[in-house]
Write a structure and sequence with these properties.
Helices cover 45% and strands 17% of the residues. By secondary structure, it is an alpha/beta fold.
C-alpha cells in the first residue's frame, strides 16, 4: 500500500514536471551609483531593456534603483558578496581599491575598439580577481566639463574654487588649485544654492534636467576624459549559474548595444548644448597655451597616480590598451 502511494505521488510529480519549463528564468536585481531616473543613466535603462528582450525566458534584470537602495560607496561590496548581483558603478568610485578602473576614464578608444585592443578582456580578468564579478561592458559615454558660477578669464581664476566632485575629478581639481568637495548627485542642487560649492564636474547630460544650470552659468569648454566610466558588473555567483549559451547571449547583446549607446549620447549631447545655450550657459576657454596646460594636466595627474600604484610596466600596458 505504501509502495502504491509512493508511486502515485511520484507519478504526480513527473506529470507536473512535464508542464514545467526545462530551465527556469533567472531574475536578478540591479542598482546604480546614482538614481535610475537620472539622465546619465538613460542607457543603463536601455541596456536592461535590450537584455530582457533578448533573453526573455532565460535571464531578466530588475533595475530597482540607485543609492536609495544601496549607498553609492557600498556598491562594490554588494556585488562582491552577491547582495546585489548587477551594479552600475562609476569607475572613479573604485579606483582606490582597483586602480585599473581609472583606465576606463582615460581610454581614448570607443567601447568597440576596446574589445579589439584587448582592454575589454583585460578588465574582465581584473574585475573577476578584485570583485568576484563579470565585467559586461559600458552603459554610458560622455566627456566631462567643469561648470562654474563665475566666469574664469584665465586658468589662474580656477584656484581656490570649491567644486563638487564624486571622486573622479579630485586629482585634476587639486592640480588646478581647486578644492574638491565630495557630494552625492541628488544633493548637488542644494550645495550650489547654499554656496557650499562654486561649481561642479559633470558631463552634459543632466545639467539642465536637474536644474543645476540655474546656479552655474559658465562651462570650461575643454572636454576631458573622452570616455565616461559607468560600467555593468554581474556577480560570479549569478554568472556561474547561467548556461554557457545564456552567458554568450548576454555578452553579445552588450557588445551590440555599446555602439548604439555611443550614438545616443553623441546626439543627445548636441541637443543639450543647444538647450543649455538657449538657457544662458556660456562656453569659455583660455589662451591656446593654457588650454593645452589644462588638458595635459587632466591626463598627466591621473597617469602619474596610476603609475605610482601599478608601476611603469603595467601602466604602459594600460596606455597601449586604451589608445594613449
Amino acid at each position: 500500500m505504501l509502495r502504491s502511494a509512493f508511486l502515485a505521488a511520484a507519478g504526480a510529480v513527473l506529470a507536473l514536471a512535464a508542464f514545467a519549463p526545462a530551465h527556469a528564468e533567472t531574475t536578478v536585481r540591479a542598482v546604480s551609483f546614482i538614481p535610475k531616473n537620472n539622465p546619465v543613466m538613460n542607457q543603463a535603462n536601455a541596456w536592461v531593456a535590450e537584455v530582457n528582450a533578448a533573453l526573455k525566458g532565460e535571464f531578466q534584470i530588475n533595475y530597482v534603483g540607485g543609492p536609495e537602495v544601496v549607498p553609492r560607496y557600498q556598491l562594490a561590496d554588494a556585488v562582491r558578496n552577491n547582495i546585489v548581483p548587477i551594479i552600475f558603478p562609476a569607475g572613479g568610485d573604485l579606483q582606490d581599491e582597483m586602480p585599473q578602473t581609472l583606465a576606463y576614464t582615460l581610454s581614448k578608444l570607443s567601447p568597440s575598439e576596446e574589445r579589439k585592443s584587448g582592454f575589454y578582456d583585460y578588465m574582465v580578468g581584473e574585475v573577476a580577481k578584485k570583485y568576484n564579478a563579470r565585467y559586461l561592458g559600458r552603459v554610458q559615454m560622455s566627456p566631462f566639463y567643469f561648470w562654474l558660477k563665475k566666469e574664469p578669464k584665465a586658468l589662474a581664476d580656477l584656484k581656490g574654487l570649491k567644486m563638487r566632485t564624486g571622486s573622479l575629478y579630485d586629482k585634476f581639481m587639486k592640480a588646478l588649485g581647486m578644492t574638491p568637495v565630495n557630494i552625492n548627485a541628488p544633493e548637488t542642487f542644494t550645495a550650489l544654492e547654499g554656496g557650499v560649492v562654486d561649481g561642479l564636474g559633470w558631463p552634459v547630460s543632466g545639467m539642465r534636467q536637474q536644474g543645476w544650470n540655474k546656479h552655474v552659468k559658465f562651462v570650461v569648454d575643454l572636454p576631458f576624459y573622452g570616455q565616461s566610466n559607468i560600467i555593468a558588473m554581474l556577480s560570479h555567483a549569478e554568472w556561474n549559474k547561467l548556461k554557457p549559451d545564456v552567458q554568450k547571449k548576454l555578452v553579445d547583446v552588450t557588445a551590440a548595444f555599446e555602439p548604439k549607446m555611443v550614438a545616443y549620447y553623441t546626439a543627445e549631447n548636441e541637443k543639450e548644448w543647444g538647450e543649455l545655450e538657449k538657457a544662458g550657459m556660456k562656453r569659455v576657454k583660455f589662451s591656446e597655451a593654457e588650454n593645452k596646460q589644462y588638458l595635459d594636466t587632466a591626463y598627466n595627474v591621473e597617469w602619474a597616480w596610476l603609475e605610482s600604484k601599478l608601476g611603469k610596466d603595467e601602466t604602459a600596458k594600460l596606455r597601449k590598451l586604451t589608445g594613449n
